[in-house]
Automatic annotation (TrEMBL), chain A:
Residues 1-25 form the signal peptide. Residues 84-463 form the Solute-binding protein family domain. The lineage of its organism: Bacteria, Bacillati, Actinomycetota, Actinomycetes, Kitasatosporales. SUPFAM superfamilies: Periplasmic binding protein-like II. Pfam families: SBP_bac_5. GO terms for cellular component: ATP-binding cassette (ABC) transporter complex; periplasmic space. One of its GO terms (molecular function) is peptide transmembrane transporter activity. InterPro entries: Peptide/Ni-bd (IPR030678), SBP_5 (IPR039424), SBP_5_dom (IPR000914). The keyword Signal applies. Keywords: Signal. GO terms for biological process: peptide transport. This is Peptide ABC transporter substrate-binding protein. The keyword 4Fe-4S does not apply.
UniProtKB/TrEMBL annotation, chain B:
One of its GO terms (biological process) is transmembrane transport. It is found in: Cell membrane. The keyword Lipid biosynthesis does not apply. Keywords: Cell membrane, Membrane, Transmembrane, Transmembrane helix, Transport. InterPro entries: BPD_transp_1_N, MetI-like, MetI-like_sf. Belongs to the binding-protein-dependent transport system permease family. It is a multi-pass membrane protein. Its main location: membrane. Pfam families: BPD_transp_1, BPD_transp_1_N. Residues 94-297 form the ABC transmembrane type-1 domain. This is ABC transporter permease. GO terms for cellular component: plasma membrane.
């Protein structure tokens, strides 16, 4: 390797080689969707794209296009309407008979039968399949046999699910649950074709469902192309030719792409761009409350926070938070100050009402008085904990702390404990290791008041992270679930909520809005209650 | 020469084991990834236990590491949480980042060395001073500032290029991200080659070459440049590794689905197979790049020999 005397024009060589590669690699070009196809921002779904394993919005977005379940939530009102179901009947709020409509098929031609549902649900519940959404089936008789708390499953399927004929099956629940049929719009309850069970890997690469769109191509981690399924017989045929979902790591890049005409729809407008939205997009910007509530939960598993009298301190902290100011200054109006423990997206019929009342209104003097009456902050201090990798959590925690410090006037008694990643934060919360108040965000799975209360505050409930317990609250929830009449059930849930207002186990902070911006090519863009665009209604051109 | 290479390759083994162990420990220190899979909901204990068992998270740490290394030597880098094999992720991510790095390195070499030579030959003149000031400014501007700025100006305001890179990541789309990625290193390359050239212009061999009556361009390219490039080559060699792993910010700004994107995603989700796997490959890239740099010395300077 000592060719010193030979001329070696190596710099030029390297450049030439690169240029040659450039030339040959630039053959493609163009891109851009065909007529009537819109492009939309997306993030990589966290789990494999199967109905019972998808518990976040990004995967849910796809399932909502590719699948139709027994029920579907009306994007406007949130009401659960029959979709594949013809009727779901019960006489005792515990045993249900489900009848399917005729004519539904999967896009591979297979019929949607009672078996498509029962097999899918049994698959979802079975412990060997490790599906995240398995607990949604825990109300069904026989769940423990397929999903024991430890050890191997004792059965292949749940006793409570019985196929009667091609279009009928029955469901037996363990307890009375009058609003159970309303939960069936959730993606975990979607039917699955036989192709899923015979070759799951292939199915995951290109999911096949019974919804208005089919998956045309799917490059994991970067793009999914969905096209209108012309054979779709449901009532909500797609009004555009298809949707290209493109994965963005940075929502700011997606926004830049939108305003430079490179992308049609962004459903997550970055915080730093909110002040430009008006001039960039005008009326092509949507900002509406979604079924998401952020709360500040107190660690009631710690005696210093749960002893009698502390409810006054908790109420005082709630009153020390200036929600109006924080939502305006930090979130530019993309959060709405909370007035209860549900969401305005439920509507008044669904149970949304101003039940927090005075306790959620900023009042410095009253806050100071309440905290003092309750015996002051435990140890004279309080820390707020949250992950700070997304959602401007650091900013609002600082603001809340400043607000509390100003109210008490005793120097920095409130401090922020930022946690670097969501994963780490979730570990600390689920293992009850947090010693101070911590953030808890809740996105409802279905637009029911029950979903905002029971999983979060019922004694021993799965997501009751603060370990709140109150016998009257539990009794009211039980009564509501047994109530056949919807309106009466909602009343009981609201009574239960009044107990939260008095006990304040978690401070409601604000409702998170869904925000979206879209290009001039699109019209009829709406967001549903889950802040996901209703793709099938969008028209292009 | 051959023996030298073999010795260097053998030295890589302990470095490789040490780095993977460290990375493994660090990712492990981030904590249990399973809870985050369930979002804001509480993980179902039975399901979570099953997932932990499958990922060997219930085993002691040393056993996890041995199991992981054992699998790697069989070519199995594990599975990411979204169900995709890590090797598959690598197959899509590395070519993209490699292209980006290539673009950046070519820009560094061509622009950086040219500017360095010009400025070194005109030492002390206004051009030289001006370039020094410019490189100082470039070095002090962080990548995310230059990235967002150029993206906004070229992509949004003037509409010359698309603000993001498509999933094919063609080379022509990668020019702007390549420039952003190269900027800081380019300034270093300019400064390094300027100093080196400025020093060597007064060397004896240059005077001899001029005295022989060689044309000026030949003196510069064949004699002066070649002898002045050793520090620059060292820098660029080390930079290849740094660029491949350090493109996280640039890849995020321009939405390039390369190594930086996968690492970012992996870290956020505590996905140890992805993070350890990718970093392992990056370690190898770094080691090989360094070896190549050392071998290049011999080509550039005949006085250096390896035995």
């Amino acid at each position: 390797m000592r060719g010193a005397s030979h001329p070696t024009p190596w710099v030029a060589c390297a450049v030439a080689a690169v240029l040659a590669v450039t030339a040959s690699a630039c053959g493609g070009g163009g891109g851009g969707g065909s007529d009537g196809v819109l492009s939309s921002s997306w993030s990589d779904p966290q789990n494999p794209l199967e109905p019972a394993n998808t518990n976040e919005v990004q995967g849910g977005k796809v399932l909502d296009m590719v699948f139709r379940g027994l029920k579907r939530y009306d994007p406007g009102t949130g009401e659960a309407r029959d979709m594949v179901a013809e009727a779901i009947e019960t006489t005792d709020s515990q045993n249900f008979t489900v009848t399917l409509k005729k004519g539904w098929t999967f896009s591979n031609g297979e019929k949607v039968t009672a078996g498509s549902f029962v097999d899918a649900w049994n698959y979802a519940a079975h412990i060997d399949n490790k599906q995240n959404n398995a607990p949604f089936f825990s109300d069904i008789v026989g769940y423990e046999d397929v999903h024991p708390e430890s050890g191997a499953a004792r059965a292949k399927s749940m006793r409570g699910l019985v196929v009667k004929d091609e279009r009928t099956f029955t469901v037996a629940l363990k307890d009375k649950f009058s609003t159970w049929p309303e939960t069936l719009g959730y993606q975990a309850f979607m039917p699955l074709p036989q192709a899923f069970f015979t070759d799951r890997a292939a199915w995951l690469n290109k999911p096949v469902g019974n919804g208005p769109y089919t998956v045309d191509s799917y490059t994991r981690g970067s793009e999914m192309r969905l096209r209108r399924w012309d054979g779709y017989q449901g009532p909500d045929k797609a009004r555009n030719a298809g949707v290209d979902l493109r994965v963005y790591t940075d929502n700011n890049t997606a926004y830049q792409d939108l305003i430079s005409g490179n992308l049609d729809l962004v459903d997550d407008v970055p915080a730093q761009q909110l002040k430009n939205v008006e001039s960039d997009l005008g009326d092509r910007y949507i900002n509406q409350p979604a079924l998401i509530l952020q709360t500040l939960v107190f660690p009631l598993y710690r005696p210093e926070w749960s002893k009698p009298g502390m409810e006054k301190v908790r109420l005082g902290i709630s009153k020390a938070i200036n929600r109006e100011q924080i939502t305006r200054q930090i979130y530019q109006g993309t959060r709405t100050p909370a007035k209860d423990w549900t969401s305005p997206a439920l509507g008044e019929k669904g149970g949304y009402a101003d039940l927090c009342g005075d306790a959620c209104v900023f009042d410095a003097a009253e806050a100071k008085r309440l905290i003092a009456e309750g015996g002051g902050l435990p140890g004279g201090r309080i820390t707020l904990t949250s992950n700070v990798d997304t959602g401007s959590h650091r900013q609002w925690m600082d603001a809340v702390c400043n607000s509390v410090n100003n109210v008490l006037g005793r120097g920095p008694v409130c401090t922020v404990n930022p946690v670097g990643t969501f994963a780490d934060f979730r570990n600390q919360v689920t293992e009850a290791r947090v010693t101070g108040a911590f953030r808890s965000g809740w996105q409802a799975d279905y637009p029911l008041i029950q979903n905002f209360l029971e999983p979060l505050y019922y004694t021993g409930a799965s997501s009751n992270y603060g370990k709140f317990t109150d016998r009257r609250f539990d009794a009211l929830v039980d009564r509501a679930n047994a109530e056949a009449d919807q309106a009466a059930a909602v009343k009981h849930f609201q009574d239960a909520e009044r107990i939260l207002a008095a006990q304040m186990p978690a401070v409601p902070l604000w409702y998170q809005n869904g925000s979206a911006g879209y290009s001039e090519r699109l019209s009829d863009v709406k967001l549903n209650q889950f802040s996901v665009p209703v793709y099938d209604r969008i028209t292009v051109g | 020469m051959g023996r030298y290479v073999v010795r260097r390759l053998l030295q890589m083994i302990p470095v490789f084991i040490g780095t993977t162990l460290l990375i493994f420990l660090m990712v492990y220190a981030l904590g249990d990834p399973v809870a985050a899979l369930f979002g804001d909901k509480a993980p179902d204990p039975a399901t979570a236990a099953r997932i932990r068992e499958d990922l060997h998270l219930d085993e002691p740490l040393w056993k996890q590491y041995l199991l992981y290394m054992g699998a790697i030597f069989r070519g199995d880098f594990g599975t990411a949480f979204n169900g995709q094999r890590v090797t598959e992720l690598m197959a899509t991510a590395f070519p993209v980042t490699l292209r980006l790095t290539l673009v950046a390195v070519v820009i560094e070499i061509v622009v950086g060395i040219t500017l360095g030579v010009v400025s070194g030959l005109k030492r002390g003149r206004p051009l030289d001073t001006g370039l020094l000031v410019v490189t100082l400014v470039v070095i002090s501007v962080p990548t995310f500032v230059s990235g967002y700025l150029l993206q906004f100006l070229l992509g949004v305001k003037w509409g010359w290029v698309s603000p993001s890179v498509s999933s094919d990541a063609r080379l022509d789309e990668l020019i702007l991200p390549g420039v952003v990625l190269a900027l800081v290193s380019l300034a270093y390359v300019t400064r390094l080659s300027r100093t080196s050239i400025a020093e060597n212009t007064r060397a004896d061999y240059v005077r001899t070459a001029i005295a022989k009556g060689l044309p000026r361009h030949r003196v510069i390219t064949r004699h002066l440049l070649r002898n002045s490039l050793i520090p620059v080559v060292t820098f660029i060699g080390a930079d290849v590794g740094a660029l491949m792993g350090g493109a996280i910010v640039t890849e995020r700004i321009f939405n390039i689905h390369g190594v930086g994107y996968q690492l970012y995603q992996g870290i956020l989700r505590n996905n140890s197979p992805t993070v350890v796997g990718f970093v392992t490959i990056l370690v190898i890239v770094f080691l090989v790049a360094n070896l190549l740099v050392d071998l290049l010395y011999a080509v550039l300077d005949p006085r250096i020999r390896y035995a």
